[in-house]
């Protein structure tokens, strides 16, 4: 087939897949509610987001955003402190928006999920019981009442793109909704603790660092089983298990 560019599998598991063909990303998701959220969120925020090229369920075609990722889990970030501060300022502009019409995860659901995943990790010898117990105690600081804001919901460092020190794109909005502002900050700095001060400086205001650390533990504990079962490695250097060990 002359003229057809190589297809790159960006991510693929039982729930969804993303392919790249040239400068076009094809997101395939059987849950169209997630895609609805992604499209509506991208059209609602004051941040640069991928252009929607077309949508033919279950496929959403998006244009690539310019720039390079702020960071990647398991690899030290080469982005400057100014770039991390710019990311913090971008998050603030998102959190200052009116609340979106769709909900986020409830406190009751998060509490139940943490309990279930901790029990599974211990029962299946996936992690030492003491590591689970001590991180669960840290994680519980995140399970408190919060004032909801418009959150990205999956604001990993590799979902934020830069040109120089400027945020040039924020991708993957399918988890957007109402949530805890500190959750977004925690996921942005997850595995990049050395850049937390830069992000907080850009974000501005009082930020409870204990709660951010609590979200690091909670995120790791609830993600390990899913990651392991979907072809990812939470035991890789700098990833979820190392984050839990660092919390000790």
Automatic annotation (TrEMBL):
Domain Aminoglycoside phosphotransferase: 47-204
Pfam families in the cross-refs: APH (PF01636)
InterPro entries: AGP_Transferase, Aminoglycoside_PTrfase, Kinase-like_dom_sf
Top-level lineage group: Bacteria
PANTHER family: AMINOGLYCOSIDE PHOSPHOTRANSFERASE DOMAIN-CONTAINING PROTEIN-RELATED (PTHR21310:SF40), AMINOGLYCOSIDE PHOSPHOTRANSFERASE-RELATED-RELATED (PTHR21310)
Descriptive protein name: Phosphotransferase
Organism: Microlunatus ginsengisoli
């Amino acid at each position: 087939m002359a003229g057809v560019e190589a297809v790159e599998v960006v991510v693929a598991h039982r729930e969804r897949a993303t392919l790249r063909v040239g400068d076009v990303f094809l997101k395939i998701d059987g849950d169209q509610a997630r895609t609805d959220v992604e499209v509506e969120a991208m059209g609602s925020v004051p941040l640069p987001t991928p252009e929607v090229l077309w949508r033919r369920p279950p496929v959403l075609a998006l244009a690539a955003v310019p720039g390079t990722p702020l960071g990647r889990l398991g690899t030290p970030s080469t982005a400057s402190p100014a770039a991390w501060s710019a990311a913090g300022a971008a998050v603030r502009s998102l959190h200052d928006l009116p609340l979106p019409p769709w909900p986020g995860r409830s406190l009751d659901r998060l509490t139940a999920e943490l309990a279930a995943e901790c029990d599974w990790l211990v029962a299946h010898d996936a992690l030492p019981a003491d590591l689970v117990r001590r991180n669960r105690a840290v994680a519980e600081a995140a399970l408190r009442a919060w004032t909801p804001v418009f959150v990205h919901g999956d604001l990993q460092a590799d979902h934020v793109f830069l040109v120089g020190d400027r945020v040039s794109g924020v991708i993957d909005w399918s988890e957007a909704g109402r949530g805890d502002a500190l959750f977004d900050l925690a996921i942005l700095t997850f595995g990049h603790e050395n850049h937390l001060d830069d992000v907080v400086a850009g974000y501005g205001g009082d930020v409870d660092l204990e709660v951010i650390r609590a979200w690091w533990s909670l995120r790791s504990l609830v993600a390990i089983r899913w990651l392991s079962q979907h072809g990812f490695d939470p035991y890789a250097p700098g990833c979820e298990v190392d984050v839990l060990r660092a919390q000790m």
